[in-house]
Structures are given as structure tokens and as C-alpha cells.
Write a structure and sequence with these properties.
By secondary structure, the protein is of the alpha/beta class. The chain folds into two domains: 136 residues, Response regulator (Rossmann fold), CATH 3.40.50; 73 residues, Orthogonal Bundle (Arc Repressor Mutant, subunit A). 51% of the residues lie in helices and 14% in strands. The protein has a six-stranded parallel β-sheet, with helices on both faces. β1, α1 and β2 form a beta-alpha-beta unit. Keywords: DNA-binding, Phosphoprotein, Transcription, Transcription regulation. One of its GO terms (molecular function) is DNA binding.
Length: 216
């Protein structure tokens, strides 16, 4: 796995690089600003980019915009965004491209090495990893979508775990049900949220975004 890191905090940037190399991963470049990050993506063709949301010069959403541009230049690039705070711009700008190979973790999660590595590998393998604390904070800030009230308590549990990035096998294990039952619940969630099959949008990602943005 070839990784590029974009983080303006030198201590965190170098600490991440050391951690990942100790795990046997190939950190091919690090950058402290969007421009050298994008140049590194062009040069090294990484599999994964780890990107801070807030970067110079304004420390607002430069990291998210750089991640969007990196995925435009290298379709399929896995991106794991790190932030000290919950940033709605991530869901609005980056996940809007489709949720495959995308993750969003609070920086405090990096210190929990096992959890961080699980999230990184999930994103690299094509999945989505969203920090549970991000889910909780977004839910406390958002208004309810009436369609979410159609969900049964069990379907609500399934959607909440989907929002944490769990795949169907992990969902079944966590809820102590069969994968067939998970598939049935997910089909019902799609129906109740008015999400028909579409080639333009990933229904799983759309359901998770609706959950994050509107809550129950």
C-alpha cells in the first residue's frame, strides 16, 4: 500500500509516517500544503491519501478541496480525512463524489493505533470509515428527516452501523443476526428512504449521508 500524507502539523505528520512504516506500509511522500500534496499524488500515484481537513493558507477546507482534486486526478484514490473537529464540508463535498474508498476520522483516533489501522485498511479495500464520534455529533446538530421515522428500531441499528463503515459481515456479527437478515434490513431501508436502484448514486452511501445530515 503506497501512501501520501498531507498534514501541516509536523509532529503529527512525521508521527503518522513513522507509525505507518512500522506497520510495514510504504509512505512515499509527505506534504504540509495542498500544492505539494497534489504534486506528490501526480508523481507517486499512491493507493491512499491521508489528508488533514484544515490546511494553509486559510486553514478552513483546503484539505477537503485538495482531496476532491486528488480523486479527480487519480480516480479510485482512497482518501482518509483527519480533522480535529466535525466538518460538514466533508460530507457535502467529498462524500458527494461517492463513498467508496473514503473515510473521516477525528485526529484523536490516530492514537488508538488498532482502530486507526482498521479504518485505514477498510478505506484502502474500497470501504467507508466514519468515526463514531462524528456520527454522534452530526446527529445532535441536525433536524429530523420524516423518512427516517419509517425505519424500525432494528433498521435504525443497521443504518447507524452502516454509518460507522461496517460491512454486511461485520453488521451481522455485531447484531448477532445472519448476513441474509442484514441484506433484508438494508433492502427495507432503501425502500423506506425512497432510494431506488441507480447507476448515478450508491444507495448505501446516500442512506448514510441522509442519516448523518438529518438524524432520527
Amino acid at each position: 500500500m503506497r501512501i501520501v500524507i498531507a498534514e501541516d502539523d509536523s509532529l503529527l505528520r512525521e508521527g503518522l509516517a513513522l507509525l505507518l512504516r512500522a506497520e510495514g506500509l510504504d509512505v512515499v511522500a509527505t506534504a504540509d500544503r495542498p500544492e505539494p500534496f497534489l504534486a506528490a499524488v501526480d508523481e507517486h500515484l499512491p493507493d491512499v491519501a491521508i489528508v488533514d481537513v484544515r490546511m494553509p493558507p486559510t486553514h478552513t477546507d483546503e484539505g477537503v478541496r485538495a482531496a476532491v482534486e486528488a480523486r479527480r486526478r487519480r480516480p479510485g484514490l482512497a482518501v482518509l480525512v483527519l480533522s480535529a473537529y466535525v466538518e460538514r464540508a466533508f460530507a457535502d463535498d467529498l462524500l458527494a463524489q461517492g463513498g467508496a474508498r473514503l473515510g473521516y476520522l477525528l485526529k484523536e483516533r490516530v492514537g488508538r493505533v488498532e482502530e486507526f489501522m482498521v479504518a485505514l485498511r477498510r478505506v484502502a479495500d474500497g470501504g467507508t470509515a466514519i468515526d463514531p464520534e462524528v456520527v454522534a455529533q452530526l446527529l445532535t446538530r441536525s433536524r429530523a428527516d420524516r423518512r427516517l421515522e419509517r425505519l424500525s428500531p432494528r433498521e435504525g441499528d443497521v443504518l447507524a452501523l452502516m454509518a460507522e463503515g461496517l460491512g454486511n459481515g461485520a453488521l451481522a456479527e455485531r447484531l448477532v443476526i445472519t448476513e441474509g437478515a442484514v441484506h433484508k434490513h438494508i433492502r427495507s431501508i432503501f425502500a423506506k428512504l425512497d432510494l431506488p436502484p441507480s447507476e448515478r448514486a450508491d444507495r448505501r452511501v446516500t442512506a448514510v449521508l441522509r442519516y448523518l445530515e438529518n438524524g432520527r
